[in-house]
């Protein structure tokens, strides 16, 4: 989009209004003329019939017939001239409507470009909150279901609002994922573009990612099996991701509709572990994000997975995973609907589900589920995300920075979050 575009849009906007108005007046004016003509024609007939008498009748009748046939001819003529005009007007109106749609699309686009440009200052003032991050190997019973979760850290906060939005970059396609390793200490930025690919970009630090032609400076890490969806996670130097196991689906094997979790060591570039996710009949958890079957999340407590199964195809499930072994430690059926969900993340053991519409409008957290049972639904804030935007293909929470890395229709955005204690009154 060139620098003249705003001017062009203003020009078109200022024109399309009055022009449409004028056209409307013209049509109304023509219709009035037509109506007047028709009614005067009728009156003529009428007055002739009642007035007539005596010898003059014949003559006047002839005159009348003459006049009225002349009027009829004129009317036909006028109508014939008007029809193509009206057709043209209708076509122009249609064209203007299409133009207006295009313009509003372009204004949207422009708004994003401006937002993006506005945020193009190099320093990202992050508040680095030093938080002890621990997600040690689970000692709890495997696969426990719907039992209260015992926190392993003392973190006890919840979101109060989305404080700010910063658009950092426009990179890649509509769906993807970008993140730092929440376990640190690396400042590396990992970018996984697309819902089915095997090559991740790695940038030494955020600044390198925001530069123009950033991809040239990125190193690439290729994983042995392509990932599926946008549910991958970088955590503690590993890339965790889901792949379709060999043989399924459609292979008729018992692995049909299951996914294999892969744990890939990013520095050594080796698969160190894998496991079949123990949920049958997996379906995409988010109604608006169809390619993702398992969404992995990291918080202060460790590693989580959001998924859904055919067993209850209307709500989301949450699982706590052991990052060492990929074992499922606990599972919960949440009250959060799948319908219109687009993404989710976990903070201090609480799942936050973000909802949107199709076509996308303003995203909002509309459901939360605290596995530890501390945050009751009534006390949970349901914040909106700033402005009207596109669809979030992924949201990755970073506990150290208390911010979200979002992939929004090809834009990479950082949302800073305001927190409060879970127990506080709203
Ligand atoms: C992966 O993404 C790159 C662009 O980022 C693209 O060129 C490549 O074809 C993709 N590979 C697959 C297997 O889709
Ligand atoms: C990475 O490679 C080094 C050297 O080969 C090895 O000592 C280390 O255990 C590997 N780490 C992982 C997680 O595989």
TrEMBL record:
Cross-referenced PROSITE patterns: OLF
GO biological process: signal transduction
Cellular compartments annotated: Secreted
Primary location class: secreted
Entry keywords, A to Z: Coiled coil, Developmental protein, Disulfide bond, Glycoprotein, Secreted, Signal
Top-level division of the source organism's lineage: Eukaryota
Coiled-coil regions, chain positions: 86-120
Any Pfam family the entry gives: OLF
Ranges of residues in domain Olfactomedin-like: 154-421
InterPro entries xrefs: Olfac-like_dom, Olfactomedin-like_domain
Protein name: Olfactomedin-like domain-containing protein
């Amino acid at each position: 989009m060139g620098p003249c575009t705003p001017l062009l849009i203003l020009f078109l906007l200022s024109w399309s209004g009055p022009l449409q108005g004028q056209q409307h007046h013209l049509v109304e004016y023509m219709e009035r003329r037509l109506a007047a003509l028709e009614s005067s024609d009728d009156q003529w007939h009428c007055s002739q019939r009642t007035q007539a008498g005596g010898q003059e009748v014949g003559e006047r009748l002839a005159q009348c017939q003459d006049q009225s046939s002349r009027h009829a001819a004129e009317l036909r003529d006028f109508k014939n001239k008007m029809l193509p005009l009206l057709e043209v007007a209708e076509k122009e109106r249609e064209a203007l409507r299409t133009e207006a749609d295009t313009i509003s699309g372009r204004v949207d686009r422009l708004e994003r470009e401006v937002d993006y440009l506005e945020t193009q200052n190099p320093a990202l003032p992050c508040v680095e909150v030093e938080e002890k991050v621990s997600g040690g190997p689970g000692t709890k019973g495997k696969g426990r279901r719907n039992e209260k979760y015992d926190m392993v850290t003392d973190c006890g906060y919840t979101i109060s609002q989305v404080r700010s939005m910063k658009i950092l970059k426009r990179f890649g396609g509509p769906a993807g994922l970008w993140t730092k390793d929440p376990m640190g200490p690396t400042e590396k930025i990992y970018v996984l573009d697309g819902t089915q690919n095997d090559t991740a970009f790695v940038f030494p630090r955020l600044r390198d990612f925001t530069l123009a032609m950033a991809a040239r400076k990125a190193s690439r890490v290729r994983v042995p099996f392509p990932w599926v969806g946008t549910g991958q996670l970088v955590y503690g130097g590993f890339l965790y991701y889901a792949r379709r196991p060999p043989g399924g689906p459609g292979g008729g094997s018992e692995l049909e509709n299951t996914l294999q979790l892969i744990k890939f060591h990013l520095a050594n570039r080796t698969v160190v572990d894998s496991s079949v996710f123990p949920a049958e009949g997996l379906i995409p958890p988010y109604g608006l994000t169809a390619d993702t079957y398992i969404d992995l999340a990291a918080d202060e407590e460790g590693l989580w997975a959001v998924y859904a199964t055919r067993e209850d195809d209307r709500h989301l499930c949450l699982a706590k995973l052991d990052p060492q072994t990929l074992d499922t430690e606990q599972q919960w059926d949440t009250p959060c609907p799948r319908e219109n969900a687009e993404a989710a993340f976990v903070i201090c053991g609480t799942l936050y589900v973000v909802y949107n519409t199709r076509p996308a409008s303003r995203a909002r957290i509309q459901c939360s589920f605290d596995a530890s049972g501390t945050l009751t639904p009534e006390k949970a804030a349901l914040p909106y995300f700033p402005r009207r935007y596109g669809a979030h293909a992924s949201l990755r929470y970073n506990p150290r920075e208390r911010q979200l890395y979002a992939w929004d229709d090809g834009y990479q955005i950082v949302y800073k979050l305001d927190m409060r204690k879970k127990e506080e009154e709203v």
